[in-house]
Amino acid sequence: MKQIFQRRAGALAANALSLTLALAAAPTLAQQASPQATSQVATQAELARKLEQLAAELADVKAQLAQLQARQPATAVSQGGWSGSAAGGAGAGAATAVAASVPAAAPAPEGPATVLTGYGEINYNRPTKSGDKTQLDLRRFVLGLQHRINERTKIVGELEVEHAVTSASDPGEVALEQAYVEHQLTPMLAARGGLFLMPVGLLNETHEPTAYYGVERNFVETAIIPTTWREAGAQVIANFDNGLTLQGGISTSFDLTKWDATSGEGAESPLGSIHQEAAKAKARSLAWFGAANWRGVPGLLVGGSLFSGNATHGQAGFAGARVTLADVHARWTPGRWDLSALYARGSISNTDRLNLALIGNPTLIPKSFGGWYVQGAYKLWQQGDYVLSPFARLERFNTARAFANLGQGLTPDAARTEQVATVGANFWITPSVVLKADYQRFHVNTQANRVNLGLGWSF
Amino acid sequence: MPAMRVALYPSAALVALAPAGALAVDYLSAEQAQKLMFPQADAFELRDLPLDTALSQQLAAAGVKPAAPRLQVRLARQGGALLGFVVVDEVIGKFERITYALGVEADGRVRQVEVLSYRESHGHEIRLPAWRKQFVGKTAASPLQVGEDIANISGATLSCTHVTEGVRRNLLWLDALRRSGRLS
Predict the structure, then answer these.
(1) B161 interaction partners in chain A (CB closer than 8 Å)
(2) What pLDDT does residue A40 have?
(3) Any long-range contacts for A88-96 (C-beta under 8 Å, 24+ apart)?
C-alpha cells in the first residue's frame, strides 16, 4: 500500500516535471517563431494548441492530485488496520483502483503490504507439594512483522522476548524466532529461505498460546521436539489439490560440541540444549528434512516429519554424530471435539565415542529419546466469542531412553519414562485472548505436580 | 514534449500493471465463479442494494455485522426466470485477504462456495472441495459455525472461521433481502 502510494506520488512528480519543462519550453518556441512572419499565423495556432495541451495536462495533474488526496484517508485506514484482522478490504482497495470510477465493491487486488502481529503469555505455576517454587512468569512476548514485497514475495520476521527482562543479571532472552523470505514459484509451489520454524509435529509451526490447550506446551513437543524449533536454510513447500502439503529442504543442524554434561539441561530436552537457532551456527554439516501433512478430509490432519543431520561439524576432538528426529501426528476435530495424538522419536549416533570424553559427568548424551501424547478437548459452552473447552491430555516421554554401551559400570542407566496427566480448560474471551487453568500430575517426579494458570493472546 | 512525457511514464505504467500480473493467488474471477455455479444461466444481473435501517436491525438481531453499507448481488437468470444469487466477498484470513464467492439457490439454500483468491502461507486447504462442500444446503437458519456444523482445518483456524462468518453474514443478508422482495 505504502509502496504504491509512493510510486503514485512519483508518477505525479513526473507529470509535474513534464509540465514545468513544457512551460519552460513555451517562450523558446515563441522566440523561434517570431522572425518568421509568414508562418506566424501557423505558429500562433501551434502555440494555442500547445497551450490547450498544457491546460489539459494541468487538468490531468489536478485530477491525479485530487485522486491522491482522496486516497490518503484510505491509506490511513489500512495502516491503522495493521493488526491484520482489522484491516478493511475497502480501504486497501483504493490503493490499486486505477480509476476513481471503479466501484467500491470490486474485489481489491491488493491488501496492506505490512502486517504487525504478536502473541504473548503470562503463566503462573504452583507446585502442590512445594509451594515455595511457585512462579509467575511473562513467559514470552513476541512481535511479528510480515511484509509483502509483491504478490509473490514476502518477508516474515518474529522477535521474541522471553521472561520479561533481559540483562546480565536477569533470566530473560531476546531471540529471533523467524526471519525468512518466501517466494511463490507457482500457485502450488513456494520456496522459503532464511530462519524458519521446522515443519515438525502439531505445535512447532503453530505455537501461539491461543492455538493449544493447557497453560504450558505439552512435554513431548518441548522435551523431545524442541518447540519452538527453528533452523536456517532453504525449503520448498508444495500444496496439492488433494489436501497434501509437502515440505522439504536443507538447513543448519544441531551442535553436539556444546553439550553440557555438567548441567541437567540435556536431560530436560536433549535437542533443546544443543540447538543453534542461527546464532553463529556451526554449518559445516547441513541437515535435510521433510514433512508431509494431509488435510484432505475436513477436520482431519494426518502427517509426519523426518529430520537428519550431522551435529559435530568436523570439530577437532569430536567424532561425527548424526541427530535424527521423526514424528507422526494426527488431529481430528469432528463437531465440538478436538482430538489429537503425536508420537516422536529421536536418536543420536556415535554417542559411545562422544560420551567417552564426558564420563564422570551427570548428563551424558543419550542414544535415543522419544514420547507420545493423546489429547481430547470438547467445546462445552459458547456464547458469542466466549468459548469454554475443557481438555485432558496424557503423555509419556523419556529424554534418555537408552545410552550407548560404554562398558560395565560406565554406561548410564536409561532414564525412567515420565508420565504426565493434565486436565484443565481453555476459556477464550475472544478468538485472540485465552484464559487457561489446569492441573498436572507427574508419575515419576511427583514433586512436580502443579496447578497452572495462564493468560495468552495472539493477533 | 509528448515524447518526453511518454519517456517519463513507463514507471507509472508498470506500477499500474504490476498487481494485475500477479500469479499464485487468483484462482477464479467473479465472472468465472458465477458461470461455474450457475452454468445454465443465460444472464447475470448485478444489483447494488443499500443497507437500510430495518435491514440493519434485522442483521444485528442475528448477530451479523455488515462489512459494507451495501450488498452487490448477482442474480442468475435463465430465460428471465430466477435461478439464484451470487455474492462475491472478502474476509481476512490470518494476515491476508481471502476472496470467495457464495452461490445461493432461489429458495435461500447454499448452492456452492468458491474461493477466488487466497494468499496465506497456510490453510490453502479451504480451497479443497471437501471443505467447501460442507456449506452446501445450509440456510439462514443453520448455525454456520466452525466447531459446530463446519469442520475446522488444523493450522488454518482463522481462515476457516472468517470464511464461515462471511458465508453466514451474506446468507442472512441475502435471506432478508429475498424475504423483503428485493431480489425478485
Answers:
(1) 431
(2) 59
(3) A89/B67, A89/B90, A89/B92, A89/B97, A90/B68, A92/A1, A92/B97, A94/A70, A95/A1, A95/A4, A95/A5, A95/A71, A96/A4, A96/B19
A296 touches chain B (CB under 8 A): yes
CB A266 within 8 A of CB A251: no
At A42, the amino acid letter reads A
CB pairs under 8 A between A and B: 157
> Of the candidates A308, A254, A250, which has an alpha carbon nearest to the alpha carbon of residue A281?
A254
Q: What is the spatial distance between Cα A121 and Cα A141, in angstroms, rounded to a whole number?
A: 7
Query: Strands, DSSP E only, in A70-134?
Result: 114-127
How close B145 comes to chain A (CA, Å)?
10
DSSP A394-409: EEEEEEEEE-----TT
If you search the block for the grid coordinates 494541468, which residue do you land on? Answer: A58
Phi and psi at residue A96, in whole multiples of 5°? -110, -5
Q: Which three cell numbers stand for residue B168?
A: 453466514
Confidence of residue A61 (pLDDT cuts 50, 70, 90): low
Sequence-distant (≥ 6) Cβ neighbours of residue A82 within 8 angstroms: A112, A114, A115, A116
**In what side-by-side order are the strands of the sheet with B81-92?**
B43-50, B70-78, B81-92, B97-105, B110-117
Length of chain A: 459
Query: pTM for this structure?
Result: 0.77
Q: Is the pLDDT assigned to residue A79 strictly greater than 50?
A: no
Q: What pLDDT, on a 0 to 100 scale, did the predictor assign at position B25?
A: 65
Amino acid, single-letter form, for residue B151: A
Higher pLDDT pick, A93 / B140: B140
C-alpha cell recorded at residue B26: 487468483
CB contact under 8 A, B154 and A241: no
Residue A203 pairs in a beta bridge with none
Can you tell me the distance from the alpha carbon of A156 to that of A178, in angstroms, rounded to the nearest whole number?
Answer: 7
Helix (H, G, I), strand (E, B) or coil at A13: helix
Cβ atoms A404, A367 nearer than 8 A: yes
Q: What share of chain A is helix, strand, coil (3-state, %, to 5)?
A: 25, 40, 35
* Cβ-based contacts of A111 with chain B (< 8 Å): 92, 96-97, 119
SS3 B29: coil
In the numeric block, the cell 553436539 is attached to A256
**3 state DSSP class of A180:** strand
Q: How far is Cα of residue B144 from the mean position of the Cα atoms in its chain? A: 15
